[in-house]
Amino acid sequence: MPDGEVFIVGSITAIIGALVGALVGYILALRTVRRQRQHEVKQEAYGTLLPLVEETIGLMGWIQGFQSLSLDDDKKFVANLIQLVRPTYLLGDRDAFLILDQLEDGHDLKNKKGRQEFLEEFRTYTITFLLMQSYSNIREVRLQLGSLRFSPAKPEVTEALNKVLGLLAGDELSVGMRGMLRHTDFAAALPEVDWTARAKAYNDALTVLARAISEELSLSL
């Protein structure tokens, strides 16, 4: 082969090699960018989802505590009121203070019966508010999980999350039943809540969920 043809063939081969190399590099870079973007989407979703789950567990703890709170001791009127107001204040519920004003106008706080009725009605308001906040949180958790439709969560994350949501759903049902039966003869038939065991169940489930999320995010890098 003449030297000129050898040079031309060599040049074309070099150009083709460079083009192939550039194409392969582009494809690899594109995959890296896509993988990074999927990681960012998951990190954002999990970063929103996990705190919402933790907050909802706290809300359920408040609700169950308020349902079992005894309002009979009139000496604890102020302490009980502060306890009931605290979560609404921390969660920024401005309506709570309007409700308090309305309840104060509707009850005679100078006698024990009026004060107890005042607390009972505000307890009902507080529990309802916390339940609605809980439902809103869980809906947002579902939406965040749905945002991963193009990059689904690993089975371990989904399983761990369903475990936590299952515990919350059970407590929501329990709260509803206690609320409906609190002033009936059936109230005594409801089983007592083992707070220690319940707290441990939530703690264990959250630990598994956090570990599963951490492992998935580390693998998606």
Q: Name the structural class.
A: mainly alpha
The biggest beta sheet is recorded as: none
Roughly what is the average pLDDT, rounded to an integer? 79
User: Which regions have little confidence, pLDDT < 50, spanning 5+ residues?
Assistant: 26-30
Distance between the termini: 51 Å
Gyration radius, in Å: 29 Å
> Which bin fits the share of residues in helices?
over 70%
% residues in beta strands: under 5%
Total count of strands = 0
* SSE pattern: HHHHHH
Global geometry: elongated
**How many helices?**
6
Our count of domains comes out at 2
Topology of helices and strands:
Layout: H1 3-67, H2 77-90, H3 95-106, H4 112-146, H5 155-181, H6 195-219
Helix pairs in contact: 1-4, 1-5, 1-6, 2-4, 3-4, 5-6
Description:
The model is unreliable at 26-30 (pLDDT under 50). The protein folds into two domains: 1-34; 50-219, no CATH class. Helix 1 (3-67) packs parallel to helix 5 (155-181) and helix 1 (3-67) packs antiparallel against helix 6. It has 221 residues and is mainly α. The protein is elongated and about 100 Å long. Helices cover 81% and strands 0% of the residues.
